[in-house]
Amino acid sequence: MLVAAISVLFVCGAAGMLLSAWIASPPTGRGFWRLTLLLIVTGIGFGGGLRFVGLTNALPPMGAVSIGLLAAAMLALVVFGVGIGTSPQAPRFALLGVSAGLAIASVLTDPSLLPTNASGLAAAIYVVGRLTLTTAMGSVLLAMLLAHWYLIQPTMPVEPLNRVLRLFIGTEILELILVATIVTLHWQEWSTAPGGVLRAFVLGDALFVAVRLFLGVLAPLALGWMTWKTVQLRSLQSATGILYAAIAFVLFGEVISLFLSLATGQPF
Fold first, then answer.
1. Less Cβ around it within 10 Å: N or C end of the chain?
2. Cα separations (Å) of 105 from 31, 111, 176, 240?
3. How many CB atoms lie within 10 A of CB 26?
4. In 10 A of CB 121, how many CB atoms?
């Protein structure tokens, strides 16, 4: 199941980077876009490849619709990359937005990301959780990459980075609400199980939910706010260092959530 979670994480992270790159639309040169597109293609290729080589039998196949949407997203991305100039204009950024939309649609239609043991509110939380995984991983990765680029082009306006940070901070706030809802949904199960709530928080799933809350949501939220403040001061080198820590905490929290969700079919 861990390999399955990693494969999904790579695809979702790449799709989130696509969305974040479109939202940022920074006025950088070809170097930034070549590196960004390489990371996106690598993420989709590696994550999707794990699904096709038989290492993720714990998950159902991606399905024809999901594969078709992902292929269309990759095609739009290739067209964007081939025609990119020193500073892409609005029509070409629109093509990047189309690619991002197709990639996220692929994530939404992937059978492995649909709840198998939940209905109603729990099913909705499950799906929204996979979307926040996409935007959390993608936005923090793109923000880190873009912050590095300001060290190369220090006169570039900070608004593109601000837009990505808004997406990241907004995602973490939404995840905080989701975790609170998840605790509410599972509370009766934890409290009525043998050993009660104490055992659930010491030996059960509640322990991982608590760890995800403090290290995977609250810590990235605090680091996102710190990054925002340093960017407003144009202390971009400091912002880059903070984002390294944010990536580690986001990755830790999302792996916990994704592993438990895929293993149980319920939101975590």
1. N
2. 28, 12, 24, 31
3. 25
4. 12
What is the model's pTM? 0.91
Q: What are the structure tokens assigned to 118, written together?
A: 């939940």
Distance separating alpha carbons of residues 49 and 43, to the nearest angstrom: 10
Tell me the per-residue pLDDT of 61-84, one tens digit each, with 9 for 90 and over.
778 898 899 999 999 988 888 877
- CA distances from residue 152 to 27, 138, 147, 237 in whole angstroms, order as listed: 13, 22, 9, 11
Query: What is residue 117's three-state secondary structure?
Result: coil
Residue-wise pLDDT for 137-176, tens only, equals: 999 999 999 999 998 888 889 999 999 999 999 999 999 9
Type of residue found at 128: V
Cβ of 246: how many Cβ atoms within 10 Å? 26
Q: Where are the domains of the chain?
A: 1-113, 116-268
Report the alpha-carbon angle 223-133-81, nearest 5.
95
- Interatomic CA distance for residues 224 and 106, integer angstroms: 28
Exposed / middle / buried, residue 216 (Cβ in 10 Å: 0-12, 13-18, 19+): buried
Task: Tell which residue, 263, 262, 267, 265, has the closest CA to residue 8.
Answer: 262
